[in-house]
Amino acid sequence: MEEKWDTPVDRGMQFSDGQPLLGNHKTIRGVVGGILAGGAGALILNLPLWAGVSIGMLSMAGDLLNSFIKRRLGKTEGQEFPVMDQFLEGALPLVVLVPLAQVSLAGGIYLLLIFVATAHAGAKFLNQILRAEPFAGYTRRLRSRTRFREWRGCQTIGYPFHPIINIERSLYYNAFMKTVFKGLGLYAKGKQNALDIHCRELEFVFPNLPPAFDQYTILFISDLHLDCMEGITEKAREVVYRLSPDLCILGGDYRTESWGSYSIAMENIKNLLANICPKDGIFAVLGNHDCLEMVSPLREIGVRFLINDNAAIERSGDRIWIAGVDDPYYFEGHDLEDAFIGIPENGFSILAAHTPAIFKAAAGFRPNLYLCGHTHAGQVQIPGIGPVITHARVPRKMIYGQWQFGSMMGYTSSGLGTSGLPVRFGCRGEVVLIRLKRGTKQPIQSSE
């Protein structure tokens, strides 16, 4: 059914000049959608339904005629033809709209000019932003929804309208929630709690862990948000400087906001990582607050990003694999199949993902351990109730701490920093030192 709707209107037919009659971009889905949009618009504007459907049909007819003309002039599909691209699409519906709305000829021409200008701007935004890769080496599947989110949060930084198109988050947290906590007299205490960062040490025991990796240690840090408040980077450095892990994995969310400059966050991450010198390097994945543009500056200081990729760690002839996926929550860039390519079926693997949300799909690839964050353990927990907001549709046991799904072990970190407001109640910020052990017992030890 999906393929039927995506069938080109001209069904691949060619004109006498050997060029497509219309082109593959003009699909049954698009034509039907345009007609239905006309009908819906009529209902919204309290116009007769027949008028809306007629306007939609005439607009689509103008669009198809325009494509026919462009093919005859040698224009390729998607190639811009300023003014002409929108003229017929806007002019033909005036046959119905002008007499129906009792608009004068001058008024009709004015409406046409407004439509052409608006539609031209929209077409440029669609073709140059939503349907175009923002830079060379772009790694995500090109989808309009993803590109809009990237443009909104990452590629309009420095533009005057940048705060405006992201205003809802600022209003909710900085205006509403901040006022609530201050009004309750809890804001200062919450900020103090947010700086109470600790190292949580865990053991995970696996019968199939390669012998050379018995007692292997991994430092896992998720939801760093190192620009969330003054002093958090210094507190984090105090916690990690004494640690000597074999490997470090960063779980994403490097800046506090999902929009705005990330320069401070990058500098603070570099300062923090200067205190971490794992023998087998630092690996990282992206979170929903992150931009692909962050990858390059962190690669320069030795961080290896696993964006739907994996890496093998070798010791004394034994191997384990670290797999990582792109953000599954907001940008929906994760691809587990790509992440596990080349990992042997019986190979010992650890999956790093920003959120626990893909645990069911991940289990199908049989990782031994799934490391994630994103939930902040709720960040604010109510006594006797626990976390209220988690931003993850998973069983509550997966909101924080150790869990198991089938044979796959998992750990969801409460994160290092804070998101939204720089406060915590009922849960501490953390870095996690994980020790892998070879044995038969399930992991039960957890020490503060």
Automatic annotation (TrEMBL):
Q: Which regions form coiled coils?
A: none
Q: What are the alphabetically sorted keywords of the record? A: Hydrolase, Membrane, Metal-binding, Transmembrane, Transmembrane helix
Recorded hits in SUPFAM superfamilies, A to Z, give: Metallo-dependent phosphatases
Q: Which residues form the Calcineurin-like phosphoesterase domain?
A: 217-377
Q: Which Gene3D superfamilies match?
A: 3.60.21.10
Q: Name one GO biological process term.
A: lipid A biosynthetic process
Highest taxon of source? Bacteria
Which InterPro entries does the entry link to? Calcineurin-like_PHP, CarS, Metallo-depent_PP-like, Metallophosphoesterase_sf
> Which residues span the membrane?
90-117
**What molecular functions are annotated in GO for this chain?**
metal ion binding; UDP-2,3-diacylglucosamine hydrolase activity
Q: Which GO terms describe its cellular component?
A: membrane
Q: What is this protein called?
A: CDP-archaeol synthase
